Amino acid sequence: MAPTTDAGSVADLEPAARERLAGDIWDFIAGGSGDETTLAANRAALDRITLVPHVLRDLSERHTQCELFGFRASVPVAVAPIAYHRLVHPDGEMATARAARRAGVPLTVSTMSSTSLEQVTEAGGTVWFQLYPLRDRQRTRALVRRAEDAGCAALMVTVDVPWMARRPRDIRNSFSLPPHVRAPLLGDEDGAPDARSRVPHASAVAEHTRAAFAPFTWADLAELRRATSLPLIVKGVLAPDDAVRAVEAGADGVVVSNHGGRQLDGAIPTADALGAVCEAVGGRGTVLFDSGVRSGTDVLRALACGADAVLVGRPVLWGLAVEGEAGVHRVLTLLRREFTDALGLAGCPDPAAARELAIWRRPA
What is the domain extent for residue 238? Predict the structure, then answer.
């Protein structure tokens, strides 16, 4: 297999990762919910966005840095919260953390991390913690305190997963975690089925989370805001009025996301929802874009639509599967190089200037 240094784009790593991974693990990573219409629509909606570049601009002084919740990121990118990195590489989240630190971008650690939060933060770098609200509210509060004590720089609460949607690939595969993979932040004390125990014609992971997770309300968000002084980010927002309400409730930012096409199938593609959310928020909070980012041009598209930065998910796992830490670093390096190139070719000296770009959407 060709090393990642031969990859000319992030997309080059996808087939290499698919070749490396077992079929059921690939399906767990790559698949979506329902008929996967939203999964496909995310990519199609991004591809419909075309940019109107400026010319004859002074590009003698350029940079790609941006401020994200008090951290100066090298590029407007953060690693999205992704479950169970050890499914694709034995070093798991530790390799991802080291690569993100080297690349100068934040890493979001999932509640479903396969490595303890403390181990990840000890690797250095800027770490955000992604919270899935649990049925046991006391344990939810304990996770928030644990993130604070571990030195996390922000708290990201996911609000579009009251339970895990039906994902047919996982059901057909009767997917369960291999014996060496577990979720130390969730633990086995939730009374939930063991995600490592195969359930015929069902996803053991979905059964586990269905028992452990709980729906989250606006009252719960207000309570969470009072419970922590960390910057609070609300992930899973698509409706502009929900974004406004989140900011008014004290959220420092929102993530425009349909969970990568893995929750409500038929939900609006995030690229189509982004502009209205940004307009509604009106600069009162940071807006991050998630679901479908595959290139530096996608980063530029998101910024031109009003986002402050993007989250990148599946490509990180592609790199991790192919070459561990070096593979993740390669993905992040490629994104930075592609974004640097696209930014300059669009006539923009820095990320802030990308907001001045006009966009035109090709008809669907």
Answer: 4-361
